[in-house]
Structure formats: structure tokens, C-alpha cells
């Protein structure tokens, strides 16, 4: 597995060098600096030189590099690097060069704990914070003479079945917040056909619950996962389309696939589709899913872009909101690419404000509040300067960002969240839905 | 930051106690000031008030600053802006090495009476740890003082001392030895965290006495009452094995490690498995086999393991060789629920094990059922960060070749997003090419045409090449592909035209006498071509169709006028094309041929060119009719299937799904020399017949089916010239290969850094020659399907 973890800043200074095996030599830092940081043409996150492989991830203004000397499990490498970044964020708020420089000791201490001989160990922040704490927080564990009951609790936690949760959590008010956040991705061709429309969803949970609560989580009445089940309804033939519609209306959702936080009992989900778990304390991602069927696109975009000769481009962009009039989207931004040699833009909009951003080569049209059912139009004209070396304009796709509350593109609903705990306390549960634009692209 | 007076000022915050200011002078030298007791030096103030060097100098001296180093040539540090420098406190070590170390020693050894709870010591240690990487080993001077601190019974201080010890023990083994008793004592501590910490630290240190001193306490700690200590001990065995194989082999530690598999704590079991596998990987003589009962047992602990432990357990399952189809099926079904885990390492490793077990399952319906389960989780990984997407996509290529039924997805999930990083885009492009078929070709071509207008030149080229290769792969779609290509050619973007020319040549070869109507369009772009591969392709077209191109002789003449300046592949193409012209139209060719043959035989140093020249000369002068038969004869067919991996490599890579080798899609030992080979183990339940494999390996069509392999063996002068027909084939093949290797290799050779590396500049392991693997700029296009 990993031979070492290295951290660099953007200038290529080696901030952290932690070797886990004797084959991780200090000069490898120089090689990475030369080969990757000062090389403008890096085309892969993985570089193998001789017997050494450098796998790197960039986060904020630092490079996080894993060094391996064998044909290691790349899944572990990258998943670990991202986990390390997440830990950094949970510990320091922001994981960047300044955070590293202000916390050298803590980072070394963490690395020593979460990797042993280069093998990732327990990386759950909750348990780690029991015995690796920023120095301004005084902890009993920090002194060697801590009572043995305390330390064995830690070691049980770090090696136990529920490594993500401490047993002694107490809240006066027991609350759980569920956020269903969907990224809807769209790729539409110039002719208006949908090339790809899918949803990647996330169910985030913030649990502030006492003790060791067992949670049961229910989605739509009918939850179909994967394509396997569809084989059964195959013979229905033409009926299929109609059935789908009624199914959707009856509160069913078809998920292509889903993945769960490690606290969820996967065996149970596999057998009877119930999601049961003992949540970690605080915020975590309970579930991640993907849907490709019955995707409700919140916005329809109709774009007409005409190049008139070589000196002018005419735009007419119509955006229609495709959701109920009680809902409204916020922060709607449409980015409309313009040719590189654009000299000036004149634009008109029926709603919102449009501005030409020459540094990004696009017109940015912002609509703060977009009420369901309404349709707005932008028309614009770009004047081009003539260029000696006339190259065809690559016409990158138009893209949209927005966020829309109380709407899910996949149709997913949270039916219930039941919490069982031996003291039988009552708890308050909140659910919120939000649909955002993932990569919402329209070619023209 | 230039002040307008030509001086660049730099200053760095050293610690909370003092500033160091460096003035860079025009003369290329610098002056270094040390300014104690000044906590905040406002950036703006300095820039505004002290615009000139003398003024600043005066101010600094007045404030009690001392000049540490004058007229120091500053080529050791790049000239950076003041803003950069204010953040950079690595500089100080070089400036104030001695003073700094003395200061820290003072803080450590004599913290004063008021040092309650060792606060001053902690502070000093923190500074030392912070400086371990940033300073060039200056901190090593403090080793004895650190050893003295190790005795302090404060975990925080211990941890920092141990970190220091791990970092510097190899530099000063003699001083490090003094720490050994402390560690040994700590391994008996009542606190399990300390016991584990001491053991972990001790076993990291690559010094003989430490390694030997690990063995005895290790035996004790492997059966410690605390699982955290046992887990640490399990990994320690592999660690010691890495330091010194012999020590482990003469002891009974591996047996003891085996016994840990019966532990009732899942994390301990998983750690023992990981440790055993680590040892297995590094010794060919160790066998790791797991029987069904054990395999079944470790699967049952999966739900109680943390995510990493799950990965180790799953990895271990590939050491289980099913003896019975039913057992394999049962196990595969039992681990299938892991596919829904949010950790991609668990998912990919689970896919690996399921693919492995499928080899031992006889019921094909069940195999297909299992295969279908693999695709959705793999696609879900595409919503993870790009690095993980990339890994998932590379593995999708692999899975697609081994189990085509597993990826019956809509091809559109692989369409590129505009902001995908280039490595993701290129891999998606390969998958689109592989999944393209008659029914989706229209959508695919539309998509590829979009890609051909993107910015990244290499990506555009691959997209164009993919269109051409689709024409060869799907015969019924050839016309559509050609139309798309011509449309792109009309945009007159040079690199698109060049790429298109090359693929159109291949289309002509694949479908003779079908699409020659487009020759004129292609020839019309001749002026756009300046790359050797494209030139060679157009020259091949001119020669092949010399009878249909009226001005073929004039076109060739154009190129021949610069014959001597052309690269070898173009020269070879010119030679063959000239001979073809002569055979097609003797009147026009007769004036050109003798000159070209003379150049090729007498005025060249290249053995290939000379050999081919002689061969044509002999052929033409003895029997022109046979010559025509030989030169214009039917050509061996080309296919688009050449990118398939050979069965042996495929088998091995499938046993390593999710590993680094899958990024390169090359034989594992080619990239990771030290990797231990993995093969499917024979058993009564093994489904794939070995004969199939052998047949595929020994097939005579190998060279044609795997043109890229030829690259490795064909060296200049090594072209076989046994029979005439084969000579021409070989020549054609060779010249195809040459251009191939040049194109793909070019990226590596022209990039300034990589070129240096291949030589001698940055040698990682001196025992072996350097090889660079960069997935996209693949060396010979073996793993790079679209080259």
C-alpha cells in the first residue's frame, strides 16, 4: 500500500513529508515537484516513474500526494486522499496551505493514526476527535495517566463494529435534519433532443440524537432499484409507458443505483429494501443515488444562435420554468458563450439582468427569482472584430445553474424517519428537498 | 514585488518571535536581516515607506536588526513576490540555522520555573516538528534533547518526540538507540494507546537494533487484551517483514499471524489479512490459500468491519480458489450487497472479487445475472470526484472486454461533460468507441463531431481518429462516418485535416474500390499537411491510386523535391509510392523512379530505406510483371479490433480490478516490475478452458491483430524481408507502425521534462532503467485504445 503521503503548496514547497515505508525517499519530493507541479502539461492524476507511482489530488491551494511502490489498490489511494481532505476540513474548517502551516503537529499526528504501514485505518472523525484534538481543547486523554476505562472505550470504538459513533452522546433536544439534494444533469443537443438527463442525489443527514439510536428511513411507497426488476414487466409491451406514468403518480421512484454510508446495514437493504442504521453524530452523507428514468427537467431552454457573416452573432434564448407555480427557483444563472473575438454586446431581457463578461467569453444572465410556469427571453447581438486568422468558433455549450427548493427531479420522497432508542425519547425530524443544476448544458 | 526602484524586497515571518527580511539587490545579491522581537511588520508599510534599499536598511538597523548574511547570491531562491514570501517560512532555516537551533534547545532544556504542564516544551516541540520537512535536516542537531523529553509522561509530548524519532532515526542511528529503552518500557504501559503507539513507532524505524528489538514484544502484543493493540501488532508483522525477511522467516510470527484470523474482533481479523497479503506480495515462495470455510467466515464479518477493513477482507477473497461452482455462486451473492457501499474502494474491490468468482460458476444464467449487477454501481462512481471517475472508467474498459454483458448501459452515460478533465474525456471517448454499434452510430457520430470542435488538440485528434476507426469497425456505417469526416475536413483546421487524412487512408485500405470518389476532396487538402504521419498517408493514397489521379506525378514531384529533408517514414512512403506510380503509369513514372531508387540505395544511411530500395530495384529490373503482382497485390485486411488486450493480460488485469495497473491497461509486470504475477488458479470448477488461451496466444495472426506489439520488436534494420509479399506487408506494416509510434511517443519525447527523465536526471531506482508511464501519452498505444 502507500509508502508515503506528501503535501505541497502551489509553489512546490514540501509542507508535509510522512514516510510509512523505508522505500519512500526524501528526493521523491523533488521528482514530484519537477514532474507534476512545474509541468504545465499534466494530463493524469497518476504518474508512474520507474518503480514509483505518484497519485495526486489538488485541493484549495495544496497538492496531496500518495506515493506507492507496487501495483496498489488505486481505489483505496484516492478514496483515502479524499477522506484525508474531508478530515482536514472537519478539523480546521478549511484545508489549505495556511491550515497546514498552522497545524503541522496535528496533521502528522493524524497521519500516524489513520495510516499504519500505509494501510488506511479508522478515519471517522468522531472517534478520532476523542483522542486527537487541537491543542486548545484540553482533553483528559492527553495525559498518560488517564483512567483506563476512558482509553479502552477509545480503543473499542476505533476497532469496533460502530466505529463511527460514540456511545455517550447526550442532547437536551433530540433532532434530526434530512436534506435531499439533487443535482440534475442535462445535455441537450442543438436540435433540442435530450442526449442525457440524469439525477445524482445525495441524502445528507444531521443527527443530534442522544444515546445509540436506531433509525429506519423510508422512501417512496414503491422503490425500484436497478434494472433487474424491469425484466419482469417486459411482456407488458406497449402498456409500459402508461404504467410508468401511473406509477410515478402513485409515489414510486426508480433509482438506477444507490450507495450508502457505512453505517447502513447493506444486507437489510439488499433483502427487503429497508434503510436502517445507527447514525454518526452530526452531519454525514447517508446515501447517494442515481436516477435516469422519469427525470423532471425544471427548465426548458430554447436557444437560437445565428452567426451572421463573420462580424455578427444573434442570440435568442428562451428559458421556461417547468414546475408548479407555487415554487420558485433562486439564483438562476444562464451562461451564454460568445466568440473569442467579440467586441461588444447589446442585450435585452424580459426578466433579470444580463451582463457581458469578456474575461469568460460569455453573457451572464442572472434571474434572482424564477416563478414556476413563467418564461423569460434574452435577445442579444454580438459584434465581432475581424481577425486575420479566422478560426471557426467552437460553440461551447450554454449552461445553467439554479437552485430550487421543495422539488426533486427524480420524484424521490422521504416517507418517514423512525428513531428507536432504549430511553424512548421523542425526537423532532425535519426534511428539506432541493434540486440544483449539476451540469446543465445545452448545445446550440 | 518591484518597488519601482529596481529592488525587490522579500520578507518572511519566521516564527511568532522574529522576522527575517531579505533584500534582493539589483546586483543579484541579497542582504539578510534578523529582527528579533518584532511581531508584525505591516506589508503595506514596508512597501510604501521603504521604497529604497538604503532607507529600509537604516530603519532595520535602528530597530535593533542585525545583518546575518550579506552579499549572498540568491540563486538558491527564486525571486518571488513579497506576498508569497510573507507566507513562506521555510526560508528561515537557511538563514538562521545555528541561532534557531540554539534557541529551540534553550526552550527545551531550560524552560524556566514557570513551565507548568510543560507548555513551553510543547511549544518548542511543535516548532521542531513544523520544521522537520521545511528545513533541510537542521533539526537533527536537537536529537539528544528530544530523547531527554521522551520520558515526560504526557502523551502529546511523547507523540511529538516519536514523530521526530521516526523522521530522523535513520540519519543518526547511534543517538536513536538511546530511545530504545523508552519505547520498550512504553510497550508495557497500562494505557493501550501508548502500547500501540510505542510498537508502531518502534517498528517504523529502519535500524537493525530497533527491528530486532521488535520481535519479542511483538509476540506478546499480538495476544494483548486490547483489540487496538492487536490490530497494530498484526500490521507490525508485515512491517518487520519489509525491514528484514529473514527475521520473520526464522521466527514463528507468520503462524501467529495466521492464528489472529480467529480473533473475535473484526478489525483485528481484517488487519491480519491485510498483513498476510502484504507479505504474500513480496515473496514468491509464500502461498496464501483460503478454504471455503474460512472464506465464508470472513465474509460474515464484513458488515461489522469499517470501510477499509472491508476492502482488505474483500481483497483476501481472491486467494480463495473455489472447488465447486455452487460455493462460488453463494459467496458472490453474499458479497453483492457491498456494491452499494459509498466507499469506491469497497465497490471496486467487490467488483474484482465478483468477476473473479464468475470464472468458477458454471451456470451461465447466474453469471449474467451477477454481471448485470456490476454496471449500476460502476456508473454511480461517475458522480464522484474526477480522479475516481477516471479509475472507474478505466476499469469499465476492462470489464467490457471480459464481460461485455455487464455494461449494457445506455452509451450516453459516457458522453463527455464540457468541464470534464482531459483524462476523463479521453477515457470516455474510448468507451464510446467500444460501445458504438449499428443501432447507436448516429448518436455517436453526432457526439464525436461535437468533440472535434473542442479546444484540446489531442482530444480532438482522438475524436477524429475514432470516427475513422468506426468506419472500419462497423461496415454498414462507413458511409456515415466518411461523410462526417469530410464535413470536418472542410473546416480546414490543420490538425483535423491531418488526422482525417490518416484515417481515410485506412478506410481506403479496408474497403477497396468503394469510396474512391472522395479522393479528390482529400487531395484538395494536401497543402495543409505537415506532419510525417499525415504526409505518409497522403503519399500512400497518391501511389495506390496513381491511375486515377491525373497529376499524381506532379504531386509526388512536389514531395520528392524535399526528399532528403523528410523523415524516414515519409521517405519510405515516397519510395513505395514512386514505384507504384511507375507500375500504374510507366510513362509518367519512368522519369522519376531511377532517381528515387538511386537516392534510396546510395545516398541514405538508413538500412530500412536502403533494403527496400534495393529490393524494388532488383524486382523491377528482373521481372516487372511479378513486380506488379508483388507491389500491387491484395493487402492483408486491417481491423479495428486491434485494441483488444491479449487474453493473458486481460486475465491478470481482471484479477487486479481497481489497482493502478488498470489505469495503464498494460501487462502488470511491464509497469510494476516487482509485482507478483497473478493467475487464475486451476480447480475443478474453473470454467474457462486453458486451450482457448493457448490458441489465442499462439495464433499466427498475432502480429496483425496486435500491431502495437510490433513496435517493441521492430527496430530499424530488423524488418523481415524473407519473401517479396511478406516484405511488402512488412514494409506496409512497418511504416504504419513507425508512424504510430512516432505519434504517440512524440508527446513524451517532446515534453521537456520527460525527455530529461528518460536520460539520467532523476533516477528513482538506480538498479533498473527508467520508464515513464503516463496513461494518456501511452508509450506505444498498447493501452491507449484510440491511437
Automatic annotation (TrEMBL), chain A:
GO terms for cellular component: clathrin adaptor complex; clathrin-coated pit. CDD domains: AP-2_Mu2_Cterm, AP2_Mu_N. Transmembrane segments: none annotated. Its main location: membrane. It is found in: Membrane, Coated pit. PROSITE patterns: MHD. Residues 173-443 form the MHD domain. InterPro entries: Adaptor_comp_med_subunit (IPR050431), AP2_Mu_C_sf (IPR036168), AP2_Mu_N (IPR043532), AP_mu_sigma_su (IPR022775), Clathrin_mu (IPR001392), Longin-like_dom_sf (IPR011012), MHD (IPR028565), Mu2_C (IPR043512). Belongs to the adaptor complexes medium subunit family. One of its GO terms (biological process) is intracellular protein transport. Pfam families: Adap_comp_sub, Clat_adaptor_s. The keyword Transport applies. It comes from Capronia coronata CBS 617.96. Keywords: Coated pit, Endocytosis, Membrane, Protein transport, Transport. The keyword Amino-acid biosynthesis does not apply. This is MHD domain-containing protein.
TrEMBL record, chain B:
One of its GO terms (biological process) is intracellular protein transport. InterPro entries: AP_beta, ARM-like, ARM-type_fold, Clathrin/coatomer_adapt-like_N. It holds the Pfam family Adaptin_N. It comes from the Eukaryota. Its main location: membrane. It is found in: Endomembrane system. GO terms for cellular component: endomembrane system; membrane coat. Residues 106-623 form the Clathrin/coatomer adaptor adaptin-like N-terminal domain. Gene3D superfamilies: Leucine-rich Repeat Variant. Coiled coil: none annotated. Keywords: Membrane, Protein transport, Transport. Belongs to the adaptor complexes large subunit family. This is Clathrin/coatomer adaptor adaptin-like N-terminal domain-containing protein. It comes from Capronia coronata CBS 617.96.
Amino acid at each position: 500500500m502507500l509508502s508515503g503521503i506528501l503535501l505541497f503548496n502551489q509553489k512546490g514547497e514540501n509542507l508535509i513529508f510522512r514516510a510509512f515505508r523505508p522505500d519512500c525517499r526524501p528526493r521523491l519530493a523533488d521528482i514530484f515537484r519537477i514532474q507534476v507541479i512545474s509541468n504545465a502539461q499534466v494530463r493524469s492524476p497518476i504518474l508512474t516513474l520507474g518503480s514509483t507511482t505518484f497519485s495526486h489530488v489538488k485541493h484549495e491551494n495544496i497538492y496531496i500526494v500518495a506515493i506507492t511502490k507496487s501495483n496498489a489498490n488505486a481505489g483505496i489511494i484516492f478514496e483515502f486522499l479524499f477522506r484525508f481532505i474531508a478530515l482536514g476540513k472537519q478539523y480546521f474548517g478549511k484545508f489549505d496551505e495556511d491550515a497546514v502551516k498552522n497545524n503541522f503537529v496535528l496533521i502528522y499526528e493524524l497521519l500516524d493514526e489513520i495510516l499504519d504501514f500505509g494501510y488506511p485505518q479508522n478515519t471517522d472523525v468522531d472517534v478520532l476527535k476523542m483522542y486527537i484534538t487541537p491543542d486548545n481543547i484540553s482533553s483528559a486523554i492527553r495525559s498518560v495517566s488517564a483512567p483506563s476505562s476512558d482509553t479502552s472505550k477509545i480503543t473499542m470504538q476505533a476497532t469496533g463494529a460502530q466505529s463511527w459513533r460514540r456511545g455517550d452522546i447526550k442532547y437536551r433536544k433530540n433532532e434530526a435534519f434530512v436534506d435531499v439534494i439533487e443535482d440534475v444533469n442535462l445535455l441537450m443537443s442543438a436540435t433540442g433532443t435530450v442526449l442525457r438527463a440524469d439525477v445524482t442525489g445525495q441524502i445528507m443527514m444531521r443527527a443530534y440524537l442522544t444515546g445509540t439510536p436506531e433509525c429506519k428511513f423510508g422512501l417512496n411507497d414503491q422503490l425500484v432499484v436497478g434494472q433487474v426488476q424491469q425484466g419482469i414487466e417486459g411482456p407488458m409491451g406497449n402498456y409500459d409507458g402508461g404504467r410508468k406514468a401511473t406509477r410515478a403518480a402513485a409515489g414510486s421512484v426508480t433509482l438506477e443505483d444507490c450507495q450508502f454510508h457505512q453505517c447502513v446495514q447493506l444486507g437489510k437493504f439488499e433483502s427487503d429494501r429497508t434503510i436502517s442504521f445507527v447514525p454518526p453524530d452530526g452531519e454525514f452523507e447517508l446515501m447517494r443515488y442515481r436516477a435516469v428514468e422519469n427525470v423532471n427537467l425544471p427548465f426548458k431552454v430554447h436557444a437560437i444562435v445565428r452567426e451572421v457573416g463573420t462580424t455578427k452573432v444573434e442570440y435568442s434564448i428562451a428559458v421556461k420554468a417547468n414546475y408548479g407555480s407555487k415554487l420558485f427557483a433562486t439564483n438562476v444563472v444562464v451562461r451564454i458563450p460568445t466568440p473569442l473575438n467579440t467586441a461588444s454586446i447589446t442585450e435585452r431581457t424580459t426578466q433579470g439582468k444580463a451582463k457581458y463578461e469578456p474575461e469568460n467569453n460569455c453573457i451572464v444572465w442572472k434571474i434572482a427569482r424564477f416563478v414556476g410556469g413563467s418564461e423569460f427571453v434574452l435577445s442579444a447581438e454580438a459584434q465581432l472584430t475581424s481577425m486575420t486568422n479566422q478560426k471557426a468558433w467552437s460553440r461551447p455549450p450554454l449552461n445553467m445553474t439554479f437552485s430550487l427548493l421543495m422539488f426533486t427531479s427524480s420524484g424521490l420522497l422521504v416517507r418517514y424517519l423512525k428513531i428507536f432508542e432504549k430511553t424512548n425519547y421523542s425526537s423532532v425530524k425535519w426534511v428539506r428537498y432541493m434540486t440544483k443544476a449539476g451540469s446543465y448544458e445545452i448545445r446550440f | 514585488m518591484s518597488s519601482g526602484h529596481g529592488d525587490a524586497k522579500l520578507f518572511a515571518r519566521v516564527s511568532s518571535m522574529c522576522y527575517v527580511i531579505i533584500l534582493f539587490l539589483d546586483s543579484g545579491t541579497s542582504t539578510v536581516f534578523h529582527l528579533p522581537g518584532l511581531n508584525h511588520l505591516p506589508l503595506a508599510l514596508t512597501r510604501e515607506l521603504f521604497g529604497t534599499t538604503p532607507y529600509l536598511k537604516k530603519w532595520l538597523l535602528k530597530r535593533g536588526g542585525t545583518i546575518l548574511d550579506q552579499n549572498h547570491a540568491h540563486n538558491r531562491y527564486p525571486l518571488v513576490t513579497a506576498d508569497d514570501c510573507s507566507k513562506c517560512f521555510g526560508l528561515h532555516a537557511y538563514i538562521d540555522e545555528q541561532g534557531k537551533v540554539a534557541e529551540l534547545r534553550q526552550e527545551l532544556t531550560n524552560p524556566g520555573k514557570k513551565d507548568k504542564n510543560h507548555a513551553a516544551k510543547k511549544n518548542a516541540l511543535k516548532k521542531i516538528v513544523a520544521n522537520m520537512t521545511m528545513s533541510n535536516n537542521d533539526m537533527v542537531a536537537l536529537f539528544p534533547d528530544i530523547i531527554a523529553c521522551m520520558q515526560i509522561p504526557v502523551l502529546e509530548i511523547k507523540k511529538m518526540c516519536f514523530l521526530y524519532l521516526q523522521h530522523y532515526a535513520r540519519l543518526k542511528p547511534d543517538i536513536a538507540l538511546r530511545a530504545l529503552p523508552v519505547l520498550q518500557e512504553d510497550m508495557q504501559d497500562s494505557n493501550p494507546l501508548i502500547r500501540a503507539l510505542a510498537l508502531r513507532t518502534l517498528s517504523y524505524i529502519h535500524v537493525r537494533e530497533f527491528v530486532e528489538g521488535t520481535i519479542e514484544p511483538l509476540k506478546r502484543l499480538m495476544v494483548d487484551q486490547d483489540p487496538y493493540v492487536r490490530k497494530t501488532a498484526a500490521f507490525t508483522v508485515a512491517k518487520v517483514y519489509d525491514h528484514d525477511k529473514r527475521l520473520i522467516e526464522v521466527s514463528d510470527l507468520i503462524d501467529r499471524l495466521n492464528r489472529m484470523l480467529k480473533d473475535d474482533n473484526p478489525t483485528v481479523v481484517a488487519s491480519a489479512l491485510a498483513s498476510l497479503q502484504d507479505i504474500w506480495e513480496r515473496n514468491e515462495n509464500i502461498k496464501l490459500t483460503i478454504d471455503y470455510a474460512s472464506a465464508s467466515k470472513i465474509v460474515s464479518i464484513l458488515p461489522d468491519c469499517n470501510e477499509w477493513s472491508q476492502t482488505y477482507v474483500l481483497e483476501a477473497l481472491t486467494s480463495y480458489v473455489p472447488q465447486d461452482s455452487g460455493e462460488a455462486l453463494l459467496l458472490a451473492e453474499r458479497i453483492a450487497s457491498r456494491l452499494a457501499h459509498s466507499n469506491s474502494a469497497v465497490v471496486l474491490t467487490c467488483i474484482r472479487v465478483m468477476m473473479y468468482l464468475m470464472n468458477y460458476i458454471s451456470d451461465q444464467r447466474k453469471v449474467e445475472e451477477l454481471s448485470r449487477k456490476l454496471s449500476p454501481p460502476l456508473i454511480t462512481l461517475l458522480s464522484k470526484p474526477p480522479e475516481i471517475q477516471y479509475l472507474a472508467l478505466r476499469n469499465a474498459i476492462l470489464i467490457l472486454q471480459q464481460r461485455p454483458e455487464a455494461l449494457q448501459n445506455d452509451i450516453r452515460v459516457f458522453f463527455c461533460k464540457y468541464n470534464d478533465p482531459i483524462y476523463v474525456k479521453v477515457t470516455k471517448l474510448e468507451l464510446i468507441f467500444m460501445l458504438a454499434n449499428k443501432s447507436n452510430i448516429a448518436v455517436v457520430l453526432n457526439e464525436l463531431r461535437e468533440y472535434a470542435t473542442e479546444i484540446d488538440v489531442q482530444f480532438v485528434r482522438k475524436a477524429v481518429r475514432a470516427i475513422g476507426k468506426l468506419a472500419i469497425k462497423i461496415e454498414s456505417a462507413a458511409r456515415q462516418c466518411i461523410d462526417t469526416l469530410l464535413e470536418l475536413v472542410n473546416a480546414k483546421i490543420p490538425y483535423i485535416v491531418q488526422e482525417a487524412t490518416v484515417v481515410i487512408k485506412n478506410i481506403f485500405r479496408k474497403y477497396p474500390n468503394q469510396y474512391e470518389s472522395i479522393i479528390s476532396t482529400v487531395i484538395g487538402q494536401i497543402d495543409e499537411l505537415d506532419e510525417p504521419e499525415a504526409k505518409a498517408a497522403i503519399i500512400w493514397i497518391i501511389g495506390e491510386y496513381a491511375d486515377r489521379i491525373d497529376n499524381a506525378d506532379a504531386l509526388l514531384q512536389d514531395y520528392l523535391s524535399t526528399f532528403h529533408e523528410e523523415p524516414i517514414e515519409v521517405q519510405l512512403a515516397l519510395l513505395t509510392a514512386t514505384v507504384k506510380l511507375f507500375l500504374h503509369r510507366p510513362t509518367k513514372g519512368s522519369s522519376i523512379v531511377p532517381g528515387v531508387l538511386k537516392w534510396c540505395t546510395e545516398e541514405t544511411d538508413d538500412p530500412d530505406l536502403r533494403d527496400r530500395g534495393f529490393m524494388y530495384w532488383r524486382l523491377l529490373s528482373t521481372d516487372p510483371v511479378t513486380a506488379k503482382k508483388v507491389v500491387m497485390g491484395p493487402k492483408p485486411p486491417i481491423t479495428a479490433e486491434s485494441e483488444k488486450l491479449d487474453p493473458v493480460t486481460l486475465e491478470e488485469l481482471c484479477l487486479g480490478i481497481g489497482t493502478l495497473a488498470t489505469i495503464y491497461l498494460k501487462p502488470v509486470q511491464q509497469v510494476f516490475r516487482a509485482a507478483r504475477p497473478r493467475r487464475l488458479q486451476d480447480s475443478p470448477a474453473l470454467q474457462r478452458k486453458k486451450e482457448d488461451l493457448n490458441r489465442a496466444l499462439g495464433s499466427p495472426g498475432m502480429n496483425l491483430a496486435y500491431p502495437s506489439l510490433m513496435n517493441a520488436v521492430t527496430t530499424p534494420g530488423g524488418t523481415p524481408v524473407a519473401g517479396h509479399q511478406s516484405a511488402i506487408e512488412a514494409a506496409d506494416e512497418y511504416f504504419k507502425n513507425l508512424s504510430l509510434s512516432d505519434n504517440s511517443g512524440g508527446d513524451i519525447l517532446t515534453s521537456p521534462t520527460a525527455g530529461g527523465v528518460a536520460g539520467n536526471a532523476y533516477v528513482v531506482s538506480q538498479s533498473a532503467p527508467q520508464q515513464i508511464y503516463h496513461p494518456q501519452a501511452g508509450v506505444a498505444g498498447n493501452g491507449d485504445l484510440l491511437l
